[in-house]
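Hey team,

Filing this mostly as a record. A colleague (T.K.) asked me to run one chain through the structure pipeline before their review meeting, and I want the input and output archived in the tracker in case anyone asks later how it was produced. No errors, nothing strange. Just documentation.

Input sequence:
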Amino acid sequence: MSLKERLSLRAGAGREWIIMILSVLLAFLVWLLTNLSKEYSGTVSVPVMAQCNIEGHGTESTNTVLVSARCRADGYRLLRESSRRDRKVVKVHFDRGDLRSDGPDSYVVVGGTKNSYTRQFFGENVQVEAFITDTLRFVFPVENHKRVPVEVPHSLSFRSQYMLSAAFSVSPDSVTVYGEESRLLSIDKITTPRLVLTDVDQSRHGLLKLNVPEGVRLSAEQVSYEIPVTRYVELQTTVPVEVWNVPAGRQLQVYPAVARVKFRCAFPLAKDPLTDFKLYVDWRDFSTSLTGRCAPRTLRLPYGVLDYRVEPEVFDCVELR
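Output structure:
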């Protein structure tokens, strides 16, 4: 056999070995990928930092808790978790009701409460079979704070025959301000951008961002507002002015003895409001008056009455001897 033939045979044998090795490696890779795609049980651990809006405390815990659980997941995830040395801290926002106070700054999460946070702890496509870490204890340090009201500067104008059916309301109507004591001393309220609405003919609601003073933090970023609006009709009538709470043996005369009353009533009218309306002057108001002039009162507004005006606004009262 010539030298050329021997070299040719050796080259062919070398190619066969390479093909065989590549085939083995490919088969191993297919086997590995197939098995890693299957689900397995294993221990997964993640460091967790808690976030929560606790009155008078910081929003983030100053410590982290290693949360461990027996989880069911695909082999890729379990292999990745077991090979990690430096785990990234996971920030989890807890509902205030799920944290139980365990000291001035200490709050714990216990029992089955943890189950509602498994996705935030371990991510998607992981099924927790059992928690290994029983109690999660986080430290939220106390911060300087004060509670102040929320004020919404507003300008409202209504379409003809429309008005507020109840008071303009804001929720929450107060917030907690956190910061240095010197900054808190100068803050007595928190405001929003001015709300301007014109030609209003229906109820309105919405959200407004809070104006945050420099150097402080607020317990809320925004507030909701409600503006209840209704259509009204105007009615007017003349009613006698009664006198109430006059001591025995005393008499009080009111001038004039009748008043003209204008009502604004929600439309449509459920009932005639004029039948239940009474206007009176209270003796106690007269006894403390320096001039003998008194504003009339009403016991209660009839159902459906939004507002009323009395003419005249004050009455002359004279005690009869």
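Quick notes for T.K.: The chain has four domains: 1-36, 40-139, 145-227, 232-319. Helices lie at 3-36, 75-83, 118-122, 181-185, 283-287.
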